[in-house]
Design a protein that fits this description.
Blueprint: H1 3-25, H2 54-63, H3 70-73, H4 94-107, H5 115-119, H6 123-133, H7 140-156, H8 162-178, H9 188-205, H10 212-230, H11 245-262, H12 269-284, H13 304-314, H14 317-326
Helix pairs in contact: 4-7, 7-9, 8-9, 9-10, 9-11, 10-12, 11-12, 11-13, 12-13
């Protein structure tokens, strides 16, 4: 028997084993249940499509209960795009903003089986996007597009053929991996979105694929680095990055949500402390109308969904009471709160 025949036979057996595991995994109904990767794929294998039966993979992505759907994890008011928290949409290209909103609406679709209809008229757009991405300038808008793509990849499987879907998958993984070389000092938000949140989004969305292990470590390292290096030790961004307070808090809060959904800490302990302090500083730097102090424009406008999520993650009684007293429309999360005892209003940044 020739080497080619042996290879084909081996891949056929591997595909059958993977299909059986996919079928078994779809029977799991607990979103927090751990899934060990069993589909072999890494960036070194990006020239090869993984040995997965495409129809079985499509069915799996449409019917699986693990992991939980991101539309259920990111609680947001209707017509509010979670990826645009703290972002001035007017600074994005019209095509960029439209794509992010479209993918956000698609990710909220309750029935993944209808995704083929939803994407039917735009399937070639995503192939073209992947081709153009190789020449795109790295900026905040592009990073947000990448995140929107990853969160919608399970649904896109219903509309694309296997080769372009896996090409898009591998291209986005490569973008996230390459982003670790970005300067945290010069491009802090771009670094955290691509090297941190994008890697974590892959780890969360595709626990079945082996590359997620490397991406999980990358996300933990890069997000932890960002929280520790970009904040002053008491949660306050350095002066150059003060305008990025809310976009950074949004990135980290979404990351926290993904970690909570899997029952894991997504950053190191020292970084978790900085995040909790950052939530307090964000409250302190908020005017009574909800806008950010020392900043104007849409990016500094009131963002209730972001603060609701951040307060949930910080789970601090003092922060909760300060927010209840100073932020518009915020309700107390704790019973019997100490309304007359507030933390010190001053901040001593080093």
């Amino acid at each position: 028997m020739s080497t080619a025949s042996l290879t084909e036979d081996f891949q056929g057996q591997t595909s059958k084993k993977i299909s059986r595991k996919l079928q078994a995994l779809r029977k799991k109904r607990t979103p927090h249940q751990k899934v060990s990767p069993f589909i072999p794929w890494s960036l070194e294998d990006d020239a090869d499509t993984p040995p997965v039966c495409w129809s079985e993979w499509q069915k799996h992505l449409a019917e699986r209960q693990v992991p939980a759907d991101t539309s259920e994890i990111f609680a947001s008011r209707k017509n509010v795009c979670v990826l645009l928290w703290g972002i001035d949409e007017s600074e994005l290209d019209l095509e960029c903003a439209e794509l992010i909103h479209f993918l956000q609406r698609a990710s909220r679709s309750k029935r993944l089986r209808n995704s083929a209809v939803l994407f039917a008229d735009r399937s070639t757009d995503f192939i073209d996007w992947h081709v153009a991405a190789k020449e795109r300038e790295l900026d905040c808008g592009f990073a947000l597009e990448c995140l929107a793509m990853v969160y919608c990849l399970p649904r896109l499987a219903a509309a694309l053929e296997p080769e372009p879907w896996w090409d898009l998958f591998s291209g986005l993984v490569q973008i996230s991996t390459d982003a670790t070389a970005l300067s945290l000092d010069d491009q802090p938000l771009l670094h955290q979105l691509l090297a941190g949140e994008l890697a974590l989004a892959f780890h969360f969305s595709f626990p079945e694929v082996s590359v997620q292990r490397d991406l999980a470590k990358q996300a933990r390292d890069q997000l932890s680095l960002g929280m520790v290096e970009l904040l002053d030790g008491e949660g306050l961004p350095h002066a150059d990055n003060l305008m990025l307070l809310r976009p950074l808090l949004a990135c980290w809060s979404r990351a926290y949500s993904l970690g909570e959904a899997t029952g894991k800490h997504v950053v190191r302990r020292d970084a978790r402390v900085q995040y909790e302090w950052c939530v307090r500083q964000a409250i302190r730097l908020t005017r009574s109308d909800g806008s950010q102090s020392l900043q104007g424009g849409v990016s500094g406008g009131w963002c209730p969904d972001l603060f609701d999520l951040a307060l949930d993650h910080s789970n601090d009684l003092d922060d909760d009471e300060v927010a209840r007293l100073s932020l518009p429309g915020v309700q107390s999360r704790h019973r019997g709160g100490r309304f007359d005892q507030l933390p010190s209003a001053s901040v001593h940044s080093e």
